[in-house]
Amino acid sequence: MECVGVEDLIEAVKERQAILFAGAGVSMTVGLPSWRTLVQHIAAELGIDLKDIPDGEINHLTLAEFYRLRQGSIGPLRSWMDRNWTIPEKALKASKVHELICRLDFPIIYTTNFDRNLETAFELHGKDFVKIVNAKDIARIRDGVPQIVKYHGDFDDDESIVIAETDYLDRLSFESPLDIKFRSDALGKTILFIGYSMTDLNIRFLLHRLWRTWAGSGFERNRPQSYVFMLRPNPIEEAVLGQWGLKVLTERECPPEQALEVFLTKLSKEIGRK
């Protein structure tokens, strides 16, 4: 990460005026299974031969929807995910990415991950936090205490989990309590997205709606700069996200699997230097 062009990000994090939005890539740095693993598990449990389905014609959202129809509930799948997507504390303690997230001290962290790995990392590093999954949790917010907002739900609450196709389509209304909270939080702060491939339709729609809100206000020039960190350069995404007011950051001089740690390390050092 070059310092040029990210001064706003450095200053916003230093002044605790930045929101972190963390995706699956954060937990994958410590061994979280991929969506492909989930697809394979559902197929095996339901007796589906994936060889009969051409690549690209099925995704985990549709397959999870089929699972719910067949099984009557997402509960057993949630239980399997909970068992298999929980990273051992030893691995989390050793995770430089999770340590850096704790050290950077964001006042609010939104995550689309269902797992408890961020919460566990905070506990292991002795940091207090408030977990927010639904509307009643918002009343538990305390001044000065970081918030971990489980934007797509949490393993402790089956009803909160956004995993099947219907769940995603329902969220496109962008009017759930957590959506309203995000709009309120995000309008006046810098946002840093990490751990995303940016193929998540909900996230893209969220970004588009936030851009439309600012564009319609007549004060778009006053919008704080926000950023997306990507593991590899992608000029197409850079152009599309750029029109929505997001700047794409990458680490070009290191392997993709090391890029997020390198980026967060440089960000932390720059803030310390400031």
UniProtKB/TrEMBL annotation:
This is SIR2-like protein. Gene3D superfamilies: TPP-binding domain (3.40.50.1220). It comes from Microvirga subterranea. It comes from the Bacteria. Pfam families: SIR2_2 (PF13289). InterPro entries: DHS-like_NAD/FAD-binding_dom (IPR029035), Uncharacterised_Sir2-like (IPR014583).
